[in-house]
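Aim 2, interim progress: modelling of the zinc ion-bound target.
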Amino acid sequence: MTTILVHAPAVAHTKLHHPENSSRIANIIPDLGKFGLLGDLEILHPKPATEKQLQRVHNEGLIDFVKSVSQRGGGLLDRGDTYATADSYELARLAVGGSCMALDAIMEGRANNGFALVRPPGHHAERDHISGFCLFNNIAAAARQAQIEHNADRVLILDFDVHHGNGTQDIFYEDDSVLFISMHLFAPYFYPGIGSFHEIGTRKGRGYTINVPFPPGVGDRGYLRVLKEFVRPLIERFDPDIMLVSIGFDAHWRDPLAMAGLSLAGYASFSQSLINIAGKVCEGRILFVLEGGYQRDVLSYGIANVFEALLGRDSFYDPFGPMIEEERDVSNLLEDLKSRDLPF
Ligand SMILES: [Zn+2]
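Predicted structure of the complex, ligand included:
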């Protein structure tokens, strides 16, 4: 049993008082050491993505834009708060390259599963548009790597960052070889403002984008119920060759950016279930890729818990417990989701 850890903390891609800064995972290796996990993991040192790997998911204009902003010392990449420093182009390439290396190890059978702890995150980066603290789309590049370099026919991407994975949705919106499922908070004025039930893909990709728009305060039970009753049967039906998971820890109730109400125990059960599904449908091939999560303690415990699950253990840490508020019922949402017509 080999579990891969790729660490690309992008220390020089950082901004003072910005939630997506280098302190998020800079110390994650010693943290994992404190949990006694390091001896059980194989650590891969990331190499930068090639131009070709980037061009599979982004147009050249976007890639050149990041490069030129970095070359002139950094600046803002969108009208919001997505920044680059002088080093960001190279560091964002490392995040993509590291994700693809972990994917290679799993597809070549050198590892069973893995977790790419990379920055900057990627799931808001569209084919030709940058937003949401994301530069290049790490998980989308890993999906294309699986298909192009390892002949994977069907790739599943499950995104359960609290924000909708609009970048990943955009890249695969017309594609029937990648099933994209995003479970996210969907509320007025909540970023990125898309990800409704009715966005389902187009042309050949019609039906291969599935959005699960949660109300605020859905909590552990809602997430786990939708996974069990809707998402799991869907993944089994699609029968992917590998499962890729965009995981963000900003759905935790302590996170400053959202209010989805998950606990660390909920994250652990959710991750264990996904690993269990991968064991059933694709010989356990599963790669987690880090997206958001802006509360450092939650990140450390949450990441440690995913590694426990990847190593096949039931143990997890949850010093913070569940949220205090009552959880929202998801019965109506589940009914809507189950009434969908699917092309597969
Ligand atoms: Zn997020």
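The chain has ten helices and ten strands. The first strand starts at residue 3 and ends at 8.
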